[in-house]
Amino acid sequence: MATSTARALNPVAELDDIARIFGISETGLGRLFRVERQSVSEWRKKGVPLTRRASVERVADLARALEREIVPSRIPEVVNTKDKWLDGRSILETIAIGGPEPVYGYLHRLFAYGGA
Question: How much is the mean pLDDT over the chain?
């Protein structure tokens, strides 16, 4: 997909996608990446540091996956709701602590859950 490729080449645009899809502010982005809000502002001005680009790209990929699977207007509620399958944390808290990989496992389990 051309948009995804273009975004991957522009980490600042990926920050925009994450904020828009998750419905979070600059402060929320800071919490998500475990940095101060001012650091996120610097990333926007000077570019996302090389050491953070992979993390930003992985979180943006997860955000876009959620946007494909969930009604977009519901995503902010979904990512802020705590769940026992995430050890009582929300998706955003889980990403901040362990990155997006545990969330992919959670989503797979959630979407595959048949209620049995």
Answer: 90
